[in-house]
Amino acid sequence: MIIVLKPNTSKEQLILFKASLEEKYNVTVNTWVGVESTVLGLIGDTTQIDEDWISAQEIVESVKRVQEPYKKANRKFHPDNTVIELPTGQKIGDGNLCIMAGPCSVESEEQINYVAERVKSAGAAFLRGGAFKPRTSPYSFQGLKSEGLDLLKGARKATGLPIVTEIMSSAHIDMFEGIDIIQVGARNMQNFELLKQLGKIDKPILLKRGLANTIEEWIMSAEYIMAGGNNKVILCERGIRTYETATRNTLDLSAVPVVKKLCHLPVIVDPSHATGKSWLVEQMSLAAVAAGADGLMIEVHNDPKHALSDGAQSLTPDKFDEVARKVFALKKAYDEIMSNG
Amino acid sequence: MIIVLKPNTSKEQLILFKASLEEKYNVTVNTWVGVESTVLGLIGDTTQIDEDWISAQEIVESVKRVQEPYKKANRKFHPDNTVIELPTGQKIGDGNLCIMAGPCSVESEEQINYVAERVKSAGAAFLRGGAFKPRTSPYSFQGLKSEGLDLLKGARKATGLPIVTEIMSSAHIDMFEGIDIIQVGARNMQNFELLKQLGKIDKPILLKRGLANTIEEWIMSAEYIMAGGNNKVILCERGIRTYETATRNTLDLSAVPVVKKLCHLPVIVDPSHATGKSWLVEQMSLAAVAAGADGLMIEVHNDPKHALSDGAQSLTPDKFDEVARKVFALKKAYDEIMSNG
Amino acid sequence: MIIVLKPNTSKEQLILFKASLEEKYNVTVNTWVGVESTVLGLIGDTTQIDEDWISAQEIVESVKRVQEPYKKANRKFHPDNTVIELPTGQKIGDGNLCIMAGPCSVESEEQINYVAERVKSAGAAFLRGGAFKPRTSPYSFQGLKSEGLDLLKGARKATGLPIVTEIMSSAHIDMFEGIDIIQVGARNMQNFELLKQLGKIDKPILLKRGLANTIEEWIMSAEYIMAGGNNKVILCERGIRTYETATRNTLDLSAVPVVKKLCHLPVIVDPSHATGKSWLVEQMSLAAVAAGADGLMIEVHNDPKHALSDGAQSLTPDKFDEVARKVFALKKAYDEIMSNG
Amino acid sequence: MIIVLKPNTSKEQLILFKASLEEKYNVTVNTWVGVESTVLGLIGDTTQIDEDWISAQEIVESVKRVQEPYKKANRKFHPDNTVIELPTGQKIGDGNLCIMAGPCSVESEEQINYVAERVKSAGAAFLRGGAFKPRTSPYSFQGLKSEGLDLLKGARKATGLPIVTEIMSSAHIDMFEGIDIIQVGARNMQNFELLKQLGKIDKPILLKRGLANTIEEWIMSAEYIMAGGNNKVILCERGIRTYETATRNTLDLSAVPVVKKLCHLPVIVDPSHATGKSWLVEQMSLAAVAAGADGLMIEVHNDPKHALSDGAQSLTPDKFDEVARKVFALKKAYDEIMSNG
Per-residue pLDDT averaged across B113-134, rounded? Predict the structure, then answer.
């Protein structure tokens, strides 16, 4: 961490400030006195240093981190890719393309079982489906809740596909015991109390990027989970909010290679929520594969025009067959191209 | 709600769609057949209609809401300003400028009592202070938690100032029983489970605008609380995330008159979090008054440079004296000017 | 165009308004009178109707376009892809991947000739290079100007590669006579006087998307050029401005399929300016191919660390060889996958 | 400027890089060698140093400016406020509130003369009106052009009000000789060729902030004009583009005190374009005064519902009378409050 002091800082202020830094944060402080300004360089573990506290000091002009503020999620300290393996053997981040597919909302046994069969036969490795639904309006369908979780488990039993579903409150954690992967939605990415609770359990967490969150904040939310002891975090890019209205959100595919450089966790992409339009899902799925994503999360509904939520962005099972065929083919070509350097 | 159908919609499709709308949503559907497109107009209570569902229909070109999607928060159905009154008599939204001031975090008894005395003598009507702190990093100070709540109550006892403090999880609601106003932070504005729980209690809720949330989404989150039966919601604009980096966030003061046109709830402004810089607080507080805000939430710390969080944006008690004096004077002038039409 | 009138509109106001619409814009107006509101539907060519004018009418609640505001660029009226062909035979938009590569700035004869040879041998179809440089600071290198144009022509002569270079003022158009493709930079996307002048010449125009411009505004700027008579417009996505700071801009790859649905012009992608980081160029080039782009614009510099501008995002010729090899291989695989449907 | 080098930088690389910096930019380079990284501090005039060039160096980890990249516009080197005085005596930035008012577009002699009389009698110091109109659509009204300039001069003759009008191309500069203040619109804020030409003339330039431009970029565009020798620049905040759609743009009032801290030029605010809605103009004008603005630019039209452009945001002359009365009254109160400190 580099701290630039104001030009008029006195010698006494400098000595006191250095002493307080060394004591408070257990770092070594090097000083470089220039003509117009004095610069301090902090050596040691600076992840716990509060930039706000530094900035608030009267003598400080500006602060600059050299190290990232995260440790456990940082690729520097964990150069290998994290591969997340389920007790049932499925892997995420092992180089294969992992597809999680299913309806936005679980609606009925018939629906979820049918969709599960179809996405399985198309090559999906996981069944996704919402039981607790975050909806902008209190008057919209809020999900089947615990009944929805049971239906998901039924579909798992029928197909063998492990299930991914969203949690909306730390008060619900017990209900999610039988779930394979717990999803944290974009709106809860900085629900820190929830993240802390998820850090205490031993189950993969799929952490979606918040609508207005930087990549650094996103990795910091993964760090929250990991700081609690749970290292099984999967990151999911799902579009950020911009001024553009032609798509629901703006899919930030450059986030995939950026996260992979900074962090060792797997990164998947959700083109359905990112674009909000079913006709864009195929193209953006292909683009996500070529951007290096470890997987895709895609909404598939037996009957999108009767879906209780987000029908506009869901694929039919037939269209999903086609998309899956294309993305697996592109992934194969991509891997060959990349391995030939 | 206006629905534009695709040019090639058949008569049969039209009849079926109209019937399903009338049945599903209990609305009357008027049809207007043009040369290039057919337009449907839905009459009745359309707040419960799911735009996503409409958009997903094969024959639908586009949808446009004419009515706002909120009812209880809607000024159309509640033309008078809501005035929120505490059992202890303080009012918010009654035409007076209500200032809530205090430290970002409660740090000690001495600190909170001293700041409480100072902000009270400067004219603040409420003491604010964080006991549970949402922090981007798991390694930053997370607040004194229940101990912090007790210290706030102590400061209330000493000064008579009612207290405002942030809740971070619905699991904590019981702990907040003795708190006067419960704050929902920007990062939890769409923590719908928390909003639902807060709808069930009888206590004012201060709802901060999310960093990337539209005014409509913000009012919809108020609607969540109100739909549960709690009409005591205070909205707080605290800056939105944009590309500008000179300030922490971009304070959207036009949100004040826009919300006041659409909604009958009181609106206050937090210039401290919006700008992130103590030297901007005075100027933006004055601007907020002239934008028509019902109140201000301002961070005041006895010793900003030793504050455990957000010191960079806190005022000293002496500076707060000056700011309060100026904003009350401007409010007085503003009221005179506005009442003379 | 659908116009929703305010509930309290009188019969007289309605009649007058309809008459003024029909007279002013030569459209037919259909009226649909509902219980709570009256809706007007305008039939005819509405591209010339000014939404601002409509919105300003006292009796208007809101306006909604059903048709896009552009005609010449609209795929509805021109279903086939536009293929732009140069007199020297090169084509853009014909299904092949067209790569335009070269340095940000032309710096010397030796430099531009060397880079031209290298990008040609790697498979680039065009040489790009800046002679007039838009720079945020007046103290930064502003380009070699007309000398730079001459050096580009020299490199064309040496290699046969047609050249693409940026114009910054309509006053310079004469100087660009010998240039093959004239580029309009992101900062000039809404320099309407320049667009009008470029509409009068017979030469392909590469129109970059503005940093804060919607896809609709971007196509409208193409329409400006086309309205003047020049239909040879190539669109180039180069990242939009968001709150994310890990990349220089946020590359909006979903813009590629969205533009292709709305508009018949070729779309290329510039991953160099979009990301601002050379290590991201390969990955985002591959993603752009899989998003369906017609081409790529890539910065290549013989010696990025001595480049006079934008060195941080330039590839070395050796790295460009590798990137080109990979993107052509991926394009081949992509085409096979897509043609097998 | 502080440059952090990569951990593995060799001694030779360090020596060569320092030498190249000192030679290229005529600065002194101080070195501070830490355990994990080496930091360079550059002393001297760093405004001409290209951050891109620095970042492109292989051994550079990151760069941080300590000094602002602008000189002539920098308050550090010019602590007093710049007051711009016209030959006819009007001043901007002298502590009084300067109002520029008039129609978006000049439409006829009768219109402009009538509006000019009305805004004059309400207290406006300048008449604004567009003769060259930047319009998103080529099919929208583009302004009366030189005829419009003549009408403006006629209105000036009739009322004595100096005139402010927008230029759209450096090719038009000669036509603007008789204009008092030349406006550069938001879309041309980084039309650097135009800025350079305006730097050569001796006339105040009103520079609007671009829709997606940071405050630093805005001041840099002022620096372009000043670098050419013309120091008479007035900055105008007019809203930035964000995701919010309730207003046309988001008015960034915190930009007023931020610019005033960094820069000595006058800053005015345009609430009409910022909000796009006439009913928000009064409230945001008052807020702008309380934010410390030196002036306001307000659209006034004799008949907004028949205006040829931007009618939705124009005030009637009667409403403008009221707004002007209120803002002058608030300005008076504000000045008294601020001078009593």
Answer: 97
Q: CATH 3.20.20.70 occupies which residues in chain B?
A: 75-339
Structural contact between residues C122 and C162, judged by C-beta atoms closer than 8 angstroms: no
Chains touching B, CB cut-off 8 Å, 3+ pairs: A, C, D
Q: For residue D217, give how far its alpha carbon lies from the nearest alpha carbon of chain A (Å).
A: 20
Percent pLDDT > 90 in chain C is 74
The interface residues of chain B toward chain C in range 230-249, judged by CB-CB distance below 8 A, are 241-243, 245
Cross-chain Cβ contact D140/C50 below 8 Å: yes
In tens, the pLDDT along D127-159 reads: 999 999 999 889 888 999 999 999 999 999 999
Residues of chain D contacting residue A2, judged by C-beta atoms under 8 Å apart: 2, 4, 39, 64
**CA–CA gap between residue A146 and residue A288 (Å, rounded):** 33
Q: Report, as an integer, the average pLDDT of C57-79.
A: 87
CA C335 to each of CA A331, A335, C137, C253: distance values in angstroms, whole numbers, following the listed order: 14, 17, 43, 18
Q: Kindly determine whether residue B220 and residue A136, on different chains, have CB atoms separated by under 8 Å.
A: yes
Mean pLDDT of A286-293: 98
Question: What rounded mean pLDDT belongs to chain C?
Answer: 93
> The tokens 């590469």 sit on which residue?
C206
* Most confident option among C5-19, C190-204, D5-19: C190-204
Beta strands in chain B (DSSP E): 2-5, 28-33, 38-43, 60-64, 84-85, 91-92, 98-102, 126-128, 163-167, 181-184, 205-208, 233-237, 267-269, 295-299
Torsional sign, CA C247, C253, C256, C261: negative
Q: Say what the pTM is.
A: 0.93
Give the C window 73-102 contacts with D, CB below 8 Å. Answer: none
Q: Kind and range of the H or E element at D33?
A: strand D28-33
By Cβ distance, the residue of A53, A140, A228 closest to B311 is A53
| C250 touching B (Cβ < 8 Å) | no
- pLDDT bin (cut points 50, 70, 90) of residue D36 is low
User: Which segments of C185-232 are extended strands (E)?
Assistant: 205-208
CATH architecture of the domain C2-64 equals 2-Layer Sandwich (3.30)
- Classified by CATH at the fold level, domain D75-339 comes out as TIM Barrel (3.20.20)
Within chain A, all domains assigned CATH 3.30.70.1140 are found at: 2-64
